[in-house]
Amino acid sequence: MGKWDWVGRLHTAIYDRSGGRLGATLAGKPMLLLTTTGRRSQQPRKTPLLYYRDAETWVVVGSNGGQDSDPAWCQNLRADPNASVQIGREHIRVRAEFAAPAERARLWPLLEAYNAPYRAYARKTSRSIPVVLLRRDPT
Description:
This protein is of the alpha+beta class. The protein has helices at about 5-15, 70-80, 100-115, 115-125, and strands spanning about 25, 30-35, 45-50, 50-55, 55-60, 80-85, 90-100, 130-135.
């Protein structure tokens, strides 16, 4: 467990238990609560994430603070792209798609401008930081 994991757990608890009334923004940026299915446990896993809105798509970034591995939620979405998000009080079923290279190239400068730490995280690691597109599941 990383030294900042408790912050994510606290944020998740506040967001979840307040029904989205608290925790939907952090430092003026919108946050969503992503629920994935654990790839090994098959249990629901909740993660608070900063998101960027691109038309009808919620875009999240698997920066993992610039670590050399993708965050667990990314690995969970690779195993099962069906997930849900809570945005404020609204719960939405979504399907995740990892941005293809051309889409990532279009979005990355927008994401860096939106959240400056992404630039530092990208310099800190040799991996290509995943950009994940969350779209409303029509079913």
